[in-house]
Backbone:
């Protein structure tokens, strides 16, 4: 079974290769090849999962050494895989949700002439992400990490004929580079400290390294995680990444990409456990992002951007939990999995709504869609209930555990982190209720489709009749079936994981677990969460459900306007980083011109001037040469005589 | 007669030769002035040989004469060639070596 691990990655990689190299002649079957290979990878993963369950708890880790990649002297970099419970969880999530998104894309991208290329990129994305979670050393993990970055760039910029999509892709790539730099330096420091890239020796010797070094490694790993997982301060790419096709958003937000940061922190748990400062930094980043994303999500009128804010916030929850150490690792991953279900479901639902509404994304122009799109309404509604943590659904089990764990950190930190997490749950209920109500309830506020000459169609291939109201209709089966499956997952996953603490027992051998000493009981946390949840949802209902929603957004308070601009993240980056960088480079250019060029040009000019004078001596007349010879001889003779006299 | 006087004569001849090289333009005259300087040297060599009482200076004088003879052959050939091509024997016309 061990060598099947390579095939897990191989299947989607083969798909990417065939689809991208195969060219136009595969246009008619390309999407099915993509789906088939993603499903094959999932089937393999499921088989390995069953195989793994059959083994005793302590011996569930499978390893597979493929080949030595760079054997140079004492330096060894291997292509070797390690499939333990943590990797297995990710494999099932990535391939399972990934396959559903593939199937959904068949319908969603049906009119796009580049559908084959799209599926090639999707397969590449899966392969890179699988490589990331299956690698048994940091170097190979980094390969997958960069592969994910590449695939996300290709997919976000899939409609590169739109300048905004091309810019968003570049932005995602560049912001990710900052994080990647952190990860690469962290890997270098780890190598100089431990002399190896492999996880096992690094983690077993983690405590032997100096505190300062571990803290540096921890913070650098956190920087890497911030880039991929869109955490403050590297969060700005996520909102713009909505320029990609909706299935891509679902894939990035649910199964791949943003989960990579949480995986990295959880995988490197041994390093973080030994560096409490870095761990606290992870918590703080998580808590700040949690609030940041939630506030942004409250103000956005674009349905996908509201969901993007929600993703940022939910990943913040996971980071917060991962920063808590052994108290939180399991819950971070559990929330990651349940979030994978409901966020994928929500995005696919949003895509279905957009499909029905001529690619309108402004929620102020939706309204009353529940009658026209019953399946989308029910699946989206279940995802909505799951994400806000409605009792019994997935989010309830995983998010409450994180809030509880945050309190269990103990001390003032515990109260602050717990309080933020609790408040975040309330805001989550508010903005998700807002999305739900604005989209599916109330009076229709549909607007005629814009003239394609003035506003280029958002997604190509879809027929838009200018001046006509949209005719909402339910999406085709290839789109609704994945939504139904994901909705079922959103409802059941959390409960199944929590029966008999199944998920905890499953993951504990890898991540470790400790209960912590919570100053508040489980029931108190649950009750408090339900209260803030009810308050948040009621507020949103009062604001958007009872009163009519204006089609054009009101001016709003200062905070609302700031949140609409993503809490000024781009303005901040522009003023501090772009302007600062410009000034720095300008002063460097000035220094180069004045100092370096001045010295070089000055030397050249003085040599030139001197030789221009000297050449006048060479007048070609024999007698002047004779004079200089005579003079020289006279000087030599005089000097000789003088020396002799002395 | 005091041999030192030959040295004065030698210095006088050398100065006349040097001044001729520097002042005159005719290549032949410049050439003859060079010969004059060489012979002034020869005179000085011979005088010193006499003063010191050994033959080194006289042998040097013979060498100089041989070299001067060879130089005359080459030098006159150059001057004749130059005259043929330029129709002039002025050394100022041979100022082609400058940039």
Residues:
């Amino acid at each position: 079974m061990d060598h099947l691990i390579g095939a897990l990655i191989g299947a989607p990689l083969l798909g990417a290769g065939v689809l991208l190299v195969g060219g136009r002649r595969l246009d008619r079957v390309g999407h099915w090849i993509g789906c088939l290979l993603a499903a094959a990878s999932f089937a393999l993963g499921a088989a390995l999962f069953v195989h793994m369950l059959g083994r005793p708890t302590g011996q569930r880790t499978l390893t597979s050494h493929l080949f030595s990649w760079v054997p140079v002297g004492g330096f060894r970099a291997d292509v070797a895989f390690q499939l333990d419970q943590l990797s297995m969880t990710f494999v099932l999530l990535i391939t399972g949700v990934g396959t559903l998104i593939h199937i959904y894309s068949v319908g969603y991208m049906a009119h796009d002439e580049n559908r084959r290329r799209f599926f090639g990129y999707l397969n590449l994305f899966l392969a890179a992400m699988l490589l990331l979670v299956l690698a048994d050393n940091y170097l190979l993990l980094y390969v997958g990490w960069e592969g994910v970055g590449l695939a996300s760039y290709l997919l976000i910029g899939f409609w590169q004929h739109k300048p905004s999509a091309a810019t968003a892709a570049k932005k995602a790539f560049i912001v990710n580079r900052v994080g990647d730099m952190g990860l690469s330096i962290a890997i270098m420091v780890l190598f100089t400290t431990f002399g190896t890239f492999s996880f096992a020796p690094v983690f077993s010797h983690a405590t032997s390294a100096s505190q300062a070094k571990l803290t540096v490694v921890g913070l650098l790993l956190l920087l890497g995680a911030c880039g991929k997982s869109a955490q403050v301060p590297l969060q700005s790419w996520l909102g713009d990444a909505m320029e990609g096709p909706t299935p891509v958003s679902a894939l990035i937000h649910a199964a791949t990409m943003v989960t990579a940061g949480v995986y990295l922190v959880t995988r490197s748990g041994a390093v973080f456990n030994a560096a409490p400062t870095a761990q606290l930094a992870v918590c703080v980043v998580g808590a700040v992002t949690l609030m940041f994303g939630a506030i942004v999500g409250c103000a956005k009128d674009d349905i996908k951007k509201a969901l993007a804010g929600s993703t940022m916030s939910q990943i913040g929850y996971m980071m917060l939990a991962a920063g808590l150490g052994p108290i939180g690792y399991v819950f971070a991953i559990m929330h990651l999995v349940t979030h994978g279900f409901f966020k994928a479901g929500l995005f696919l639902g949003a895509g279905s709504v957009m499909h029905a509404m001529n690619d309108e994304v402004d929620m102020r122009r939706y309204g009353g869609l529940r009658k026209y799109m019953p399946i989308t309404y029910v699946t989206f509604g279940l995802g909505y209930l799951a994400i806000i943590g409605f009792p019994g659904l997935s989010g309830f089990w995983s998010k409450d555990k994180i809030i509880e764990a945050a309190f269990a950190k103990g001390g003032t930190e515990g109260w602050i982190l717990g309080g933020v997490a609790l408040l975040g749950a309330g805001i989550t209920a508010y903005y998700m209720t807002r999305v739900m109500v604005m989209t599916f309830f109330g009076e229709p506020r549909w607007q005629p489709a814009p003239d394609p000459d003035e506003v280029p169609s958002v997604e190509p291939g879809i027929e838009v009749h200018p001046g006509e109201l949209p005719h909402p209709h339910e999406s085709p089966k290839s789109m609704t079936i994945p939504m139904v499956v994901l909705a079922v997952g959103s409802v059941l996953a959390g409960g199944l994981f929590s029966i008999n603490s199944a998920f905890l027992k499953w993951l504990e051998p890898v991540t470790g677990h400790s209960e912590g000493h919570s100053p508040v009981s489980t029931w108190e946390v649950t009750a408090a969460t339900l209260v803030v949840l009810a308050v948040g949802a009621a507020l949103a209902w009062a604001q958007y459900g009872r009163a009519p929603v204006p089609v054009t957004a009101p001016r709003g308070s200062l905070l609302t306007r700031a949140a609409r601009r993503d809490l000024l993240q781009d303005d901040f980056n522009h003023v501090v980083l772009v302007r600062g960088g410009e000034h720095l480079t300008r002063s460097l250019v000035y220094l180069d011109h004045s100092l370096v060029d001045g010295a070089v040009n000055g030397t050249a000019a003085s040599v030139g001037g001197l030789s221009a004078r000297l050449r006048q001596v060479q007048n070609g007349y024999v007698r002047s040469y004779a004079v200089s010879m005579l003079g020289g001889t006279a000087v030599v003779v005089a000097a000789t005589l003088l020396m002799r006299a002395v | 007669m005091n041999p030192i006087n030959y040295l004065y004569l030698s210095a006088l001849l050398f100065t006349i030769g040097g001044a001729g090289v520097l002042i005159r333009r005719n290549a032949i005259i410049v050439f003859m002035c060079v010969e004059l300087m060489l012979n002034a040297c020869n005179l000085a060599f011979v005088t010193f040989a006499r003063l010191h009482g050994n033959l080194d200076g006289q042998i040097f004088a013979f060498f100089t004469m041989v070299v001067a003879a060879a130089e005359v052959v080459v030098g006159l050939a150059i001057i004749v060639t130059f005259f043929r091509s330029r129709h002039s024997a002025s050394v100022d016309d041979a100022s082609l070596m400058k940039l």
The two ends of chain B are 53 Å apart (CA to CA). Residues 56-86 of chain B form the longest helix (31 residues). Chain B has three helices and no strands.
